[in-house]
């Protein structure tokens, strides 16, 4: 029987001790523990909607609580109300009269919106027995448009302009960041580069920002390992001042860098514009978006020419609904969308968004590539599959985010088996 309403919501604080191996380390996040607020919507059938938002450890409990509070606006709702005009329902979550003050549409509350929205899209795709990208691709333009909140976007994109339908069925190009974490030793970088090249990767990203000489050495090592023709990007994770970013990147220009990611504060639109202008003669673009809080900020970045690569994050923006809005806006400005995947479950999610972008909006793979990390996929029932450096289109119904029950049990903070062992042996403490 098809579900008719949301009957309950569970939110679990799930964390992975990735900081122990420096997986995910960068100039600003030296020891991240990849974590998520894991949402499960139950319905009056056996179908469930699973969703996440991503954090790097401490504070995940705050996001979980915000998600629990906001979920009260979803539990009990009829699905025909939610999906009948998803854009309006999404706006009800972002604009609740009192909770709006905690944003609006940014920060912890927006992460909570993301987790709930992703779970609702997962449920919708399961009801239709389609992978999410296929659910999006098969929608009539009007239905897709009704799923988006176009508020604050009408000056650059109106609903009737949105969505071009194109159909292309093939893998989607990706790049790997798993060779270039800041906390890795050279020998590990060399080994991982060789493995990635053997797997068919031709696009690589490295972390920079802590020490210029070390960055020059590591980028030259990577360039030597991957060869002159493969693609290399770097990511500073918001580390520099504007002029510092320009000077630093001039110091790395001999490594033939395609983009500098998050060179300065993720809120500094004019700063990114200045960096982009200064680095353009060197052929280095600016990429940002993983910490860009909502579609209104993306609108400013796009309109100001402050980003040459639009890195939407599936869990930072208000879930699929707002991701689609930004994909449509980026297409209007001719800026390629290269989604951020640097976190637990993010690769499983963003592959759907890129495939939707490719077959229904941009119709192009030129200058487009989606991030891939080789971490934690074993915890998912339907992990993303990458072959020859390209994501293969998911086939299972849903948003690919269902985590194995054993992983949820083992890594739920702090009572899970894995955490109990790490706390017992003194590797972690509860505070
Ligand atoms: C703390 C995280 O691992 C970040 O370093 C990661 O998301 C990174 O910015 C990326 O682009 O993959
Ligand atoms: Mg990044």
UniProtKB/TrEMBL annotation:
<dbReference type="GO" id="GO:0050023">
    <property type="term" value="F:L-fuconate dehydratase activity"/>
</dbReference>
<keyword id="KW-0460">Magnesium</keyword>
<dbReference type="InterPro" id="IPR013342">
    <property type="entry name" value="Mandelate_racemase_C"/>
</dbReference>
<dbReference type="InterPro" id="IPR018110">
    <property type="entry name" value="Mandel_Rmase/mucon_lact_enz_CS"/>
</dbReference>
<dbReference type="Pfam" id="PF13378">
    <property type="entry name" value="MR_MLE_C"/>
</dbReference>
<dbReference type="InterPro" id="IPR013341">
    <property type="entry name" value="Mandelate_racemase_N_dom"/>
</dbReference>
<keyword id="KW-0479">Metal-binding</keyword>
<keyword id="KW-0456">Lyase</keyword>
<dbReference type="GO" id="GO:0046872">
    <property type="term" value="F:metal ion binding"/>
</dbReference>
<dbReference type="InterPro" id="IPR046945">
    <property type="entry name" value="RHMD-like"/>
</dbReference>
<comment type="similarity">
    <text>Belongs to the mandelate racemase/muconate lactonizing enzyme family. ENOSF1 subfamily.</text>
</comment>
<feature type="domain" description="Mandelate racemase/muconate lactonizing enzyme C-terminal">
    <location>
        <begin position="186"/>
        <end position="282"/>
    </location>
</feature>
<dbReference type="InterPro" id="IPR036849">
    <property type="entry name" value="Enolase-like_C_sf"/>
</dbReference>
<protein>
    <recommendedName>
        <fullName>Mitochondrial enolase superfamily member 1</fullName>
        <ecNumber>4.2.1.68</ecNumber>
    </recommendedName>
</protein>
<dbReference type="InterPro" id="IPR034610">
    <property type="entry name" value="L-fuconate_dehydratase"/>
</dbReference>
<dbReference type="Pfam" id="PF02746">
    <property type="entry name" value="MR_MLE_N"/>
</dbReference>
<dbReference type="InterPro" id="IPR029065">
    <property type="entry name" value="Enolase_C-like"/>
</dbReference>
<dbReference type="InterPro" id="IPR029017">
    <property type="entry name" value="Enolase-like_N"/>
</dbReference>
């Amino acid at each position: 029987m098809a579900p008719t309403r949301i009957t309950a919501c569970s939110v679990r604080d799930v964390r992975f001790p990735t900081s122990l191996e420096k997986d995910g380390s960068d100039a600003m996040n030296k020891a991240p523990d990849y974590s998520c607020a894991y949402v499960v919507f139950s319905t009056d059938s056996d179908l469930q909607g699973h969703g996440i938002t991503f954090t790097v450890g401490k504070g995940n409990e705050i996001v979980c609580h915000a998600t629990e509070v906001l979920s009260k606006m979803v539990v009990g709702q009829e699905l025909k109300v939610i999906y009948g005009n998803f854009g309006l329902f999404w706006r009800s979550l972002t604009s609740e009269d009192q909770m709006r003050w905690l944003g609006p549409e940014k920060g912890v509350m927006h992460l909570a919106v993301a987790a709930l929205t992703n779970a609702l899209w997962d449920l919708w795709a399961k009801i239709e027995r389609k992978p999410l990208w296929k659910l999006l691709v098969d929608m009539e333009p009007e239905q897709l448009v009704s799923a988006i909140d176009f508020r604050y976007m009408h000056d650059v994109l109106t609903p009737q302009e949105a969505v071009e339908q194109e159909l292309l069925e093939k893998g989607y190009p990706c790049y790997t960041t798993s060779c270039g974490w800041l906390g890795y030793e050279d020998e590990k970088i060399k080994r991982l580069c060789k493995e990635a090249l053997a797997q068919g990767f031709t696009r690589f990203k490295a972390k920079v920002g802590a020490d210029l000489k070390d960055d020059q050495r590591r980028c030259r090592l990577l360039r030597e390992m991957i060869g002159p023709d493969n693609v290399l990007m770097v990511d500073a994770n918001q580390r520099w001042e504007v002029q510092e970013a320009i000077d630093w990147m001039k110091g790395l220009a001999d490594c033939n860098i395609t983009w500098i990611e998050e060179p300065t504060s993720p809120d500094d639109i004019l700063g990114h514009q200045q960096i982009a202008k200064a680095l353009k003669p060197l052929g280095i673009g600016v990429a940002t978006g993983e910490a860009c809080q909502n579609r209104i900020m993306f609108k400013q970045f796009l309109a100001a020419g402050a980003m040459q690569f639009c890195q939407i994050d599936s869990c930072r923006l208000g879930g699929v609904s707002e991701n689609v809005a930004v994909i449509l806006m980026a297409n209007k400005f001719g800026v390629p969308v290269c989604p951020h995947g640097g976190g637990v479950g993010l690769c499983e999610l963003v592959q759907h968004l890129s495939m939707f972008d490719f077959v229904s909006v941009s119709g192009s793979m030129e200058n487009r590539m989606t991030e891939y990390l080789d971490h934690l996929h074993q915890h998912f029932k339907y992990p993303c599959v990458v072959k020859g450096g390209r994501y293969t289109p998911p086939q299972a119904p849903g948003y690919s985010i269902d985590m194995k029950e054993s992983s949820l049990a083992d890594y739920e903070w702090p009572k899970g088996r894995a955490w109990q062992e790490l706390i017992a042996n003194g590797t972690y403490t509860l505070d």
